Sequence to fold (256 residues):
Amino acid sequence: MGSHATDGRARLIDMIFPGDANHHGTLFGGVALAHMDKVAFLAASRHGRAPFVTASSEKIAFAAPGRIGEMIEATGCVVRVGSSALDVEVELVAEAPVTGERRLCTRGLFTLVAVKVPGTRLPLPPLGEPGPPVPDGPLLMADMVFPPQSNHYGTLYGGDALKMMGKAAFIAATRRARAVMVMAASDRIDFTDPIREGEMVELAAQVKMTGRSSVRIGIDLLAEDLITGERRHAATATFTMVAVDREGRPTPIRKD
Fold:
């Protein structure tokens, strides 16, 4: 059975790989802006339930760099709504995986406009009261399904779904252990419903067990139709991640 989500907020978390960085080893500004624009689109779509395009963004000044090997987290929240346009405030934060140090890289305001096509309902819903803070619990992160990630049926490739779930498991395990983590096992994966091109994917990753040097992560993957808000449970997976030292040998996880 599907459920509906109306909260105009979204969060994207990714890793900074060498291909995302310049010769100084820091995140390209264009890659950062792409993350911010994507999360603004997701937040706008969740609020307005309409096809949106980006109309403008305010001057975005970078206060701190994101470095290769760090996590980059973009969060977007709808802050103003007009009849056919809305503003989304986006923050981009870099996080060092092992130390947990977090730095605000930049923030910006994106204006998106609803495209008037058959089915677009205007005016847009008014801005409601701010939602409650996200409680402690599963790591929640979102992504989009684009055409290169889909097969000839127009649904997400299983391999791309596994990539998303593996990334969520890595981030959740790293935040738990604050150590260099590698995947030791993919214990079980069940696909229950296809995810269509153009849908949003939300991943919920939760620590199930912590051992001497390993962390077991459970992942739930949900698909969300950005126009109707319908949500479907699409997959479940369990991963075992292991903390390793510089030689790649298992190392004990610090107990805080």
